[in-house]
Amino acid sequence: MANINNQSKDFKSGFAAIIGAPNVGKSTLLNTMIGEKISITSQKPQTTRNRIAGVVHLPNAQIVFLDTPGIHKSKKTLNKQIVEVAMAAISDVDIVLLVIDASNPNPASEALIINKISEYKNLPVILAINKVDLIKKPKLLKFIDQWSKAYSFKEIIPISALEGIQTDILISAMQSLLSFGPPYFPEDIITDMPERFIASEMVREQVFNLTKQEVPFSTAVTIESFKEDADRKLVRIHAAIHVEHNSQKGIIIGKQGSMLRAIGEAARRDIQRMVGAKVLLKLFVRVEKNWSKKARSLRKLGY
Ligand SMILES: Nc1nc2c(ncn2[C@@H]2O[C@H](COP(=O)(O)OP(=O)(O)OP(=O)(O)O)[C@@H](O)[C@H]2O)c(=O)[nH]1
Ligand SMILES: [Mg+2]
Predict the structure, then answer these.
(1) What phi and psi values does residue 113 have, to the nearest 5 degrees?
(2) Which of 66, 197, 225, 279 has a C-alpha 20 to 30 A away from that of 239?
(3) How do residues 253-278 score in pLDDT, each as one tens digit?
(4) Any idea what DSSP says for residue 178?
């Protein structure tokens, strides 16, 4: 018992939800703070669909960050579902880290979020003004002034998640808000998501990168099998890309399979880096009619 008491006096720990409008850089920030790619990112909104924990290990503290889907107003079943995931994360944490995009404000989503966090009177909120690499100083100062009036934030910290500017300062500010307590995860664990989930996301990320219009938003990826050699030198993965219509299947496959090959090749490189072994990745495309509109299909595909 003495041991546990000692530990909890020297050690701080807690959960922090990273929330914000779509595309502001939440997942990029998580990856930068963790130092590994655990959450996929893209130039398109609504990339993240699940709550993904990333653990930052500090000498005397542990912060468990929860990356969440972008909060926005939508009538689409899938989008409403992912916004629920983000909203629910807020009620589960010790600190909220609100991220905004300095280069592209989103007043509608921001109002929705401020409204939500106002419900939790005692929840400390830090504001990270992201993508400061894209704006000039006078604009940033205007932002800080404007946002300091919008809510009583514990801190307002300008950052660039992409370039790693001031992300260390952000982590220190979060650390100072933590309470004493033991670590939640062992030192070698950086996420609560299994490799097979992250592998499926890395395939989906390439669909976001390489296809246009409604295709990425109509795509889900599941891992059908994930087999490692005894000495883990080779990992064989079969993944299914689910789309909503036959025409989308054609787009994902591409001319003589060229699109599917490009998706597979790029995803395989990322998965190899993650698992630290050679990867054989086989992709299939399936049509699951209107999956993003049906509660049952959403559950089946992991949402
Ligand atoms: N210039 C610049 N771009 C950034 C920065 N942070 C993120 N981005 C870019 O912004 C885009 C969106 O980043 P994500 O991390 O996917 O954003 P997100 O908030 O997780 O988006 P959703 O999951 O869709 O809600 C990507 O193209 C990133 O490379 C930054 O500090 N500077
Ligand atoms: Mg994201």
Answers:
(1) -70, -45
(2) 66
(3) 999 999 999 999 999 999 999 999 99
(4) P
